[in-house]
């Protein structure tokens, strides 16, 4: 043993010396360089100790580097000599790689680890050969295709060493030009399935695809179309074969391969949606063995896979045409499905894409079903309210992005949306019903004034039909229950029905709002808000005949007088005065009823005043009186004969007295309000004209 080592040590230094001499010899040009080099490589075989062999060869390359025959090089230069040079390097490469692989050490774990580390440091020496090959100028495409690549790959495959294979494949991809890769894709890709099963092929392949897509993106015009097409199908089938061959590859590995392929496709063939769909389809096939993904890294890759087309096209409509898209989504767990749904909606918002057919809406809502209904059994208290609200608001915004100019198609879209959101359960309806209603009312406004002629068998979209659908939709809110919201929506519908001249429909909606008010709205603050909404809407109605109008106004005033707090009562009652006198409706000018309302409001204000002085020992706010005074002035100017200057004068005096009686505790607000009201009267008097004459008798 010692003897062998001695010999090899001696041999080693001898060879090293002789290399130096040879290098001088080549320089002298006394013998052809290739012969000298050949001898040198032969001699290296004598050294079988891997480490020494490696170094010796490395050294050989150092001294012979500039002596390699190459076309146009200093020493010799025709095609033959290029071939010689290539041969030489290839041989050197083969030998070195063999030595390197032989260094694989099978000792105990710890020592082995250290060894592996050394070994991987040495790999650069092997890789350098490939680099040298790529630098030889005579290595053109033909030579690379016919000789270099096949021989290098042969060596890579035959060495059967995981580390070497991974490293060398990566080396090949990095050192040779992308154009060569494109032209030899088949040969290169065919090697992958033959590698050891443990080799990290996906990283290498991804590198390759990334380089190719960068290359293609930077030079589409020089790349023949057919080559691009072939590149896709070759890569695609190579990936298929690799995945088939590497049975043990974890699912995340295969999916990241598909992500790389998809990235390649989107960059090189942005217009080939069929390719994109093919990649997704392959992924579905791979996933179909598993039910739901559980590996987090794999889930991330699937999300990347699904996000890539959205980012590329900035447009969900394109993604909706990919038949395999929803099938990939089906493999996500419920939580991730939701995350993906949010990404999709964001993409729609970002691009302001308009989804314009019911079919597309159907596909879209299938995709985002994670947000539309409860997929999981998360109980209510586990739910993050804020997140939930944000998600549902994004669905609400989405509903406004669904639009078609054609009323028929728009109605179909609305029905599709309705179908989906109705399955959303009580938590979601308050978020999703209002945008649907408002979107439908927009359609009603478009149809308004158009008589729906019946075309063929099918009923065209008519306001009447839409109102029916809306009626059912709002009714669903009773399951929440959310009476205030429903009431508001009924009133919106009533107003729209009014504008469509549909008296019975408008009346029905009002009736339903009233039923809700009576039976469901219990909170006193909510009642106040509701009452003012009702009064405001009713005032704008012009479709009602006398009888219907009377019924509704009567109820509204009745509710007003029954509000819990006096000030609320007072304000609601004087607001009702507007129900009897509408400026632009000749039929609604009942001065007497207006006066009755205002007098009633005054009585309530008075009662409120008394109550306040009983409970707090001081007079209550005079504000109510001032507010009523302003109503008097309004109807006075509008020409209501029941409102006289004398009545106004009386009210002014009353307020003055009230204010003086409580000079200790005058709050500045009503005082200022009153002062400016008086200033207004003064101003009207001074202005003269018809109005000035009217105001003349009032003294302030
Ligand atoms: C032989 O391999 C060594 C080790 O990588 C390298 O440094 C040298 O360049 C190669 N020799 C030749 C002549 O290419
Ligand atoms: C939305 O996408 C389309 C192409 O699908 C593009 O033409 C348009 O400019 C994009 N709009 C915005 C606001 O990004
Ligand atoms: C996911 O959603 C489906 C319904 O689509 C449901 O049957 C399943 O229980 C949900 N999974 C979990 C873990 O909640
Ligand atoms: C809404 O539906 C209810 C019954 O579900 C019906 O009583 C009511 O008249 C409908 N309203 C309208 C405006 O069609």
UniProtKB/TrEMBL annotation:
Membrane topology: Peripheral membrane protein
Keyword hit for ATP-binding: no
Superkingdom as given in the UniProt entry: Eukaryota
One Pfam entry name: Vps35
Signal peptide (UniProt feature, chain positions): 1-18
Record flagged with keyword Signal: yes
Keywords, ordered alphabetically: Membrane, Protein transport, Signal, Transport
Location of this chain's protein in the cell: Membrane
Similarity comment: family membership: Belongs to the VPS35 family.
Known role: Plays a role in vesicular protein sorting.
Name the UniProt record assigns to this protein: Vacuolar protein sorting-associated protein 35
Organism: Prunus mume (Japanese apricot)
Gene this protein is translated from: LOC103321226
């Amino acid at each position: 043993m010692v003897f062998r080592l001695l010999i090899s040590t001696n041999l080693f230094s001898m060879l090293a010396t002789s290399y130096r001499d040879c290098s001088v010899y080549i320089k002298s040009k006394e013998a052809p360089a290739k012969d000298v080099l050949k001898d040198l490589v032969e001699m290296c075989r004598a050294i079988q100790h891997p480490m020494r062999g490696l170094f010796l060869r490395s050294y050989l390359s150092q001294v012979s580097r500039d002596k390699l025959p190459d076309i146009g090089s200093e020493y010799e230069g025709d095609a033959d000599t290029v071939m010689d040079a290539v041969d030489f390097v290839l041989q050197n490469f083969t030998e070195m790689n063999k030595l390197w692989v032989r260094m694989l050490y099978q000792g105990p774990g710890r020592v082995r680890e250290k060894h592996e580390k050394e070994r991987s440091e040495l790999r650069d020496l092997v890789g350098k050969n490939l680099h040298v090959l790529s630098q030889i100028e005579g290595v053109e495409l033909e030579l690379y295709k016919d000789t270099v690549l096949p021989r290098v790959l042969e060596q890579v495959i035959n060495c059967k060493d995981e580390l070497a294979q991974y490293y060398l494949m990566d080396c090949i991809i990095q050192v040779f030009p992308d154009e060569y890769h494109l032209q030899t894709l088949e040969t290169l890709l065919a090697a992958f399935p033959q590698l050891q099963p443990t080799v990290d092929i996906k990283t290498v392949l991804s590198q390759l695809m990334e380089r190719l897509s960068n290359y293609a993106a930077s030079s589409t015009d020089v790349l023949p179309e057919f080559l691009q097409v072939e590149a896709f199908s070759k890569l695609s089938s190579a990936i298929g074969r690799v995945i088939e061959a590497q049975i043990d590859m974890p699912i995340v590995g295969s999916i990241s391969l598909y992500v790389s392929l998809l990235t390649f496709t989107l960059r090189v063939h942005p217009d080939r949606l069929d390719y994109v769909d093919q990649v997704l389809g392959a992924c579905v096939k791979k996933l179909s063995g598993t039910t739901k993904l559980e590996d987090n890294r794999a889930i991330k890759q699937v999300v990347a896979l699904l996000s890539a087309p959205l980012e590329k096209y900035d447009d969900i409509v394109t993604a909706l045409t990919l038949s395999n898209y929803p099938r990939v989504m089906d493999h996500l767990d419920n939580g991730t499905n939701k995350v993906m749904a949010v990404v999709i909606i964001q993409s729609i918002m970002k691009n302001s894409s308009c989804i314009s057919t019911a079919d597309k809406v159907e596909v879209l809502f299938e995709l985002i079903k994670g947000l539309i209904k409860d997929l999981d059994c998360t109980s209510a208290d586990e739910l993050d309210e804020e997140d939930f609200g944000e998600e549902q608001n994004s669905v609400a915004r989405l509903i406004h992005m669904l639009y078609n100019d054609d009323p028929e198609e728009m109605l179909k879209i609305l029905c599709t949306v309705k179908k989906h959101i109705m399955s959303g359960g009580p938590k979601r309806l308050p978020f999703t019903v209002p945008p649907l209603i408002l979107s439908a009312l927009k359609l009603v406004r478009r149809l308004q004034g158009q008589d729906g002629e019946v075309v063929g068998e099918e009923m065209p979209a008519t306001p009447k039909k839409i109102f029916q659908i809306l009626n059912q939709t709002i009714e669903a809110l009773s399951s929440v229950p959310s009476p205030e919201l429903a009431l508001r929506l009924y009133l919106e519908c009533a107003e729209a029905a009014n504008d469509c001249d549909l008296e019975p429909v408008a009346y029905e909606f009002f009736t339903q709002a009233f039923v809700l008010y009576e039976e469901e709205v219990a909170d006193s603050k909510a009642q106040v808000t509701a009452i003012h909404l009702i009064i405001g809407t009713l005032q704008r109605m012009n479709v009602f005949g006398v009888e219907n109008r009377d019924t509704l106004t009567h109820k509204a005033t009745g509710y007003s007088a029954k509000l819990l707090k006096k000030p609320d009562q007072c304000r609601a009652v004087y607001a009702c005065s507007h129900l009897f006198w509408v400026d632009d409706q000749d039929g609604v000018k009942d001065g007497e009823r207006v006066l009755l309302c205002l007098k009633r409001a005054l009585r309530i204000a008075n009662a409120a005043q008394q109550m306040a002085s009983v409970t707090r020992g001081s007079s209550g706010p005079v504000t109510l009186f001032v507010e009523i005074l302003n109503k008097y002035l309004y109807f006075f100017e509008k020409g209501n004969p029941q409102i006289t200057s004398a009545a106004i004068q009386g009210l002014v005096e009353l307020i003055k007295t009230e204010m003086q009686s409580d000079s200790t505790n005058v709050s500045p607000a009503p005082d200022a309000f009153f002062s400016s009201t008086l200033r207004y009267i003064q101003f009207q008097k001074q202005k003269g004209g018809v109005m000035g004459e009217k105001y003349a008798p009032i003294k302030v």
